[in-house]
Amino acid sequence: MTRHGQAEAKLKELNIVLEALPKPSGNYAPYTIVPPMMYLSGVTPKLGGVLQYRGKVGQDLTREEGYQAARQCIINHLGTLKTVLGDLDRIVSIVKMEGFIQADPAFEELPFVLNGASDLLVEVFGEKGIHARSAIGVAALPGGAAVEVELIVRFE
């Protein structure tokens, strides 16, 4: 059983400040709830509504910058989860993540990049943050974003 406020205490320790629910950039919902599951639409690495990482990983960006881009995507998802659920400790498990990485065709370290998202989830939620995932290389992403991440979460 998780202590109330444990996830948010971890975020504070990591100096991570969550933003409120981002406005979708198209005709779709940022999330759909089918209790006890929440499906989160793909988000890009924005901060204050401004894209932070643009370009192809392995060409315009280093693998470490790609890692940070994936991490920022999860910070954005955590903001949505906090806004919608009110308390991150309501999360029972992170079920699945899909990460799309705009990468140079020769770049093969997609799992390393997506670890930026996975590592943060495990840091914040411990065992509940371990999830199934796919790291997918793509030719382009919205706005030229380096990374886009989708999430499926089980909550109570």
Description:
- The chain starts with 5 loop residues before the first helix and ends with a strand.
- It has one domain: 60s Ribosomal Protein L30, Chain: A (2-Layer Sandwich).
- The strands form two sheets. It has a five-stranded mixed sheet.
- Helices cover 30% and strands 28% of the residues.
- The protein has three helices and seven strands, in the order H-E-E-E-E-H-E-H-E-E.
- Helix 2 packs parallel to helix 3.
Second CATH tier, the architecture: 2-Layer Sandwich
- Global structural class: alpha+beta
Radius of gyration: 15 Å
Q: What's the order of the H and E elements?
A: HEEEEHEHEE
- The number of helices is 3
Query: Unreliable segments (pLDDT under 50, ≥5 consecutive)?
Result: none
Strand content: 25-35%
Percent helix range: 25-40%
Q: What's the N-to-C terminus distance?
A: 12 Å
Instruction: Return the CATH class.
Output: Alpha Beta
Mean pLDDT: 95
What is the strand arrangement across the widest sheet? 1-2-7-5-6
**Total domain modules:** 1
> Could you name the CATH topology?
60s Ribosomal Protein L30, Chain: A
Main beta-sheet strand count, sense and barrel state: 5 strands, mixed
Q: CATH superfamily membership, which one?
A: RutC-like
Shape: globular
Tell me how many strands there are: 7
Secondary-structure map:
Blueprint lengths: L5 H8 L17 E4 L2 E7 L2 E2 L2 E2 L11 H23 L5 E12 L7 H16 L6 E7 L8 E9 L1
Helix pairs in contact: 2-3
